Fold:
Amino acid sequence: MVPEGWEATTLDKVFKLASGSTKPTDVVAKLSDTTPNPVYGGNGVLGWSGQANHLGNVILIGRVGEYCGVTRLVYNPCWITDNALYTKDFFSGNDIEFVTYRLQYFDVSKLRSKGGQPLVSQKPIYGTRLALPPLPEQRKIADILSTWDRAIEVSESLLATARQQKRALMQTLLTGKRRFPEFEGQKWKEVRLGEVCETWSGGTPSRRKAEYYSGSIPWIKSGEVNAIRVEATEEHITEEALKCSSAKLVEPETVLIAMYGATAGVVSVSGIHAAINQAILAVKANAKLESNFLLFAVQGKMEDTKRITQGGQPNLNAQIIRAAKIPLPCLQEQRQIAKILGASQREIELGCQKIQKLRTEKRALMQQLLTGKRRVVV
Structure:
């Protein structure tokens, strides 16, 4: 049902779309004074250029690729490639910021073609029918939602700063460049992880037996090692599945390392009793190693590995990880280092929680405001 005062229309009455151009020849990986313009492909920013084929204030829709259908409003000069669609003409009577929010809530990715390479074309977008409020109400709604966006941007910036500060602390505290006064002069040993840790990986119960996946034991996959702590899992397995497979159990506070897949090199901690699959290496400290210090030492080692591979996915296995060398201060100094890094980690956790809360609140507002269930006073 169309809310009172709103008008149902198809998107071909709102804007005209076009594809971008071939990628410019001067694309580089990093922003600089000579390459200030983002280059947009089907999956977002793919680089930076000194050239621009659009001055901005344009709605951009990913046309091809995994994230096709993702919609954003670009305010500034940019280069749009032929893997993205943009609003060549935006017809009067509607607010471009509101329409962007409406498309995001609608989720244009639902219009992607079935089979083959993911693709969103202009025709189904034009045929999409949406109810739109009068222009003043559009502007008011866009202003409300943009307030949440600004809050999220500020929180993301603070989170990025907190992560950078933690990296800087790790680079000084875990290398001995910065020492606590009471430990000055004490030499550190360097040991291989396999000398001071127990390690094991898990397995995957047979997918042919659906009953194996109807149990109560959380089963962690490598893709779920993507946060500071793993607190929940998508799938659960039975005791029988555990017995009849290579899946292994881990206790809470066990360090987990994703060895391959999209999250290769990511280090997390299990917050639950769970089983793990074969793409995860569990690492448990012995008496010479403080468990919290182990977490940060391994995180530092994986950061080094990522730098060596220039941000690519590191090629890891249990043998490589067990052979990795970490510093071994005395237990008291380990605890001091872990205390400082733990405080930095908690700041990051709080930042992540705040951003998630803001995004949830924004989503709830979008559901109310963009459908007319909750009206605004203009």
Notes: The two ends are 22 Å apart (CA to CA). Helices lie at 96-106, 122-126, 135-173, 193-196, 239-243, 291-308, 318-323, 331-369. The first strand starts at residue 7 and ends at 10.
